[in-house]
Design goal:
Layout lengths: L1 E7 L3 E7 L4 H7 L11 H18 L4 E3 L5 E3 L4 E7 L2 E7 L5
Helix pairs in contact: 1-2
Length: 98
């Protein structure tokens, strides 16, 4: 199914993706995602869906992780990622929540 919600406001964006694609289908939508170290197909699908959704929301922004495993973006915006069953949700904001 793919993108089921994309809501952009002045200082924040919310996106929700329903994972119905295969690993190959999602992988074809993005480049340079390394998941060779993962064995779980569910985890691979989540990672690919996050990258596809983020590209849909922010273009070619780079997603990385800090030393504590928290996601960070190279555009100085804040990001929160959640996934459950077949859904992935991302919030990107100029504000940092506490």
């Amino acid at each position: 199914m793919g993108l089921i919600l994309l809501k952009k406001e002045k200082n924040q964006s919310l996106g929700i993706w329903e994972i119905s694609e295969s690993i190959n289908e999602l992988n074809a939508l993005i480049k340079d995602v390394k998941f060779d170290h993962l064995k779980s197909q569910k985890r691979i699908l989540e990672i690919l869906a996050v990258r596809v959704l983020l590209k849909e929301m922010c273009g070619n922004v780079k997603l990385d992780y800090n030393e504590y495993g928290a996601p960070i973006l190279d555009n100085n915006k804040n990001i929160s990622i959640s996934h459950s069953k077949q859904l992935v949700a991302i919030i990107v904001s100029e504000f940092k929540s506490n």
